[in-house]
Amino acid sequence: ALVGEGMGPAPPRAAKSQLELLATTVSFIIASASKHDEVLLRLASPGGGVAKYGLAAAQLQRLRDHGLRLTVCVDQVAASGGYMMACVADRIVAAPFAMVGSIGVLAGLPNFHKVLEHNNVEYRQVTAGKYKRTVNILTPNTEEGVAKFQEDCDVIHEAFKEHVARWRPGVDIEAVATGEVWFGRAALEKRLIDDLGVSDSEIRARESDGFDVIEVTPVKAKKQGLAKLLEGTSPSAETLVSRLGAAAAATWRGLLEQRAPPTARLEAPHLRDSDN
């Protein structure tokens, strides 16, 4: 039995590295596993960008396409994009108070055109293509543009529903695709999961069945620079260095990157850890 971890809540650049790690891990397992092996994935995620989680689900599908049985264990949360990944599994096991579901789409953005008008600031936008930009944060939004934006969200939602219905044919998709989140026992009643339990028990059960359990985890990056010099000092000092570095990187990216259009997300924002 091969045990690994899935994607968690992360900023865009970290999510990219998690996707790359997931792809590498799946490729390693496919190249190394025999027909007798199984894969167990610990998954904890409230969701995020549509494309990233769609790709993550497709990476997990590679395991099944290769004939490997996949079990996903949800100890805390697999909501929205997280559930998009989970439902690809042959079997989903969730803890009694794990949060599961949120089959919906979230998209939105503020609008500052009144602030600009108040300060006599004019913003002009040029596009080619009727729906190149449906809504904008700096110009008044039209009813047509907002309607198209809603239509785009509905298209993503329908694709999400089809994805869940494909992998979980016993689910009443119209009843569960409301954006709601359920705890483990209610999720079991709605057939969103297959069993109640925790990952540790599932791993021990595999060992009792005679499996050799191999845990696949990423190698921790070595500390460098000031963080390395502070190694062994108080955790608060290392945390301060980490936060200063992250803040500097975020400021630099903000100066370099152009403003991007709004992105639909498969996300349950109220489930995010406040520390993230």
Share of helical residues:
40-55%
Query: What is the total tally of β strands?
Result: 11
The Cα radius of gyration reads 22 Å
Low-confidence parts: none
Kindly report how far apart the N and C termini lie: 31 Å
Alpha-beta classification: alpha/beta
**Average of the residue pLDDT scores:** 84
The percent range for strand residues is: 5-15%
The H-and-E topology, N to C, reads as EHEEHEEHEEHHHEHEHEHHE
Number of helices: 10
Largest sheet, order of strands side by side?
9-6-4-2-1-10
Q: Sum up the overall morphology in one term.
A: globular
- Please give the largest β-sheet: 6 strands, parallel
Description:
- This protein is an alpha/beta fold.
- A six-stranded parallel beta sheet has the order 9-6-4-2-1-10, with helices on both faces. The chain has a three-stranded mixed beta sheet with strand order 5-7-8. A two-stranded antiparallel sheet has the order 3-11.
- The protein is globular.
- The two termini are 31 Å apart.
- The mean pLDDT is 84.
